[in-house]
Design a protein that fits this description.
This protein is mainly alpha-helical.
């Protein structure tokens, strides 16, 4: 009875959190977005604009929550001394562009528009698309469990996307921008080339839609994965203790970014997991060494330039892609 009471209380807390998030989204939409749509005669876009508002709110909350947690921790126990603040400011610009939901929303919205006619045709002919709630109806009453299952499956596919980024030559030319940060902090999570980010966003949105992730839950799934990703990039001497074998820690991911370790060798790197480190253990790519190595790419030590500012890093990424760097 006590355990049932604890589960019930936890579900109530989660329901309260969901309602709080929806209330913020609803208030912002009614008081700011909807009047703007009305003035521009774009009320036909109201449903998509509401989803965009949810992404924006989720992204803003993610930035605030991550900064409030990670900034004090990085000051308390830094893994390295930050030598160039310009690099960090560039990463902040990347974070604002990405976490405010612009790219994930674009890809999710476009794919939703493409999948909607297909979904209608399938349902008309008696074929219901896959959904975790359809397989396990009890998940409808357990929103936290539902989100965790979605996160687990998505993270599995994110692990393999990350390995492909290192394995496929042209994709690495884009992804190298992320690894070229010598002053890695929690802001570095979103330091990605625009093409790489679009591919990743479409990858994520496709998996989410194929799984039947409800649009209302998608921002929460993004929030959960992005928070752990940001924490794993933090300039922090922390390995999570025994939990490092479950969750990706700052130390575990720093090894992935290490010069000569994280993106070389027969497997083109180690520690590819995004959220759950046991994927690396399962597929033989884990490296749990107890070190906090310097981050970057080997050819940076011999003079190769990956850029400093937002636009410079983007331009050099295009040049590497077309073998002109």
């Amino acid at each position: 009875m006590r355990k049932r009471g604890q589960v019930r209380a936890y579900n109530l807390h989660m329901e309260f959190a969901f309602q709080g998030f929806e209330s913020i989204v609803g208030w912002l939409f009614v008081n700011a977005v909807q009047p703007l749509l009305f003035s521009l005669d774009l009320m036909s876009w109201s449903e998509r604009a509401f989803d965009a508002t949810a992404f924006f709110v989720g992204g803003a909350l993610s930035i605030v929550a991550t900064a409030l947690i990670c900034l004090p921790l990085e000051r308390l126990a830094p893994a390295q001394h930050v030598s160039t603040r310009t690099n960090v400011r560039t990463d902040i610009a990347y974070t604002l562009v990405n976490k405010l939901g612009l790219l994930p929303l674009l890809s999710f919205g476009l794919l939703l528009a493409l999948f909607t006619p297909v979904d209608a045709w399938l349902r008309l002919h008696g074929f219901a698309p896959f959904s975790l709630e359809d397989v396990a109806p009890m998940l409808a009453a357990l929103p936290l469990v539902s989100v965790l299952l979605y996160v687990l499956v998505i993270d599995f596919f994110e692990y393999w996307r990350h390995r492909l980024q290192h394995r496929i030559h042209w994709w690495w030319q884009l992804h190298a921008l992320h690894h070229a940060q010598r002053d890695m902090t929690f802001w570095t999570d979103d330091r990605n080339h625009i093409l790489d980010e679009l591919i990743a966003a479409f990858w994520l949105a496709t998996i989410a839609l194929l799984m039947g992730v409800p649009p209302a839950q998608f921002p929460l799934v993004i929030f959960a994965t992005k928070f752990i990703e940001s924490l794993s990039h933090a300039n922090l001497r922390w390995n999570f203790g025994p939990l490092k074998y479950v969750l990706v820690s700052p130390q575990f991911h720093r090894v992935h970014h290490a010069i000569g370790i994280g993106h070389e060798g027969a497997r083109q790197g180690v520690n590819f997991a995004v959220m759950f480190s046991f994927w690396d253990k399962l597929f033989g790519t884990a490296d749990f060494r107890d070190e906090y190595p310097a981050t970057g790419i080997r050819d940076q030590t011999t003079g190769r330039d990956y850029g400093m500012t937002f636009w410079e890093t983007q331009w050099l990424g295009f040049k590497r892609l077309f073998n002109r760097a």
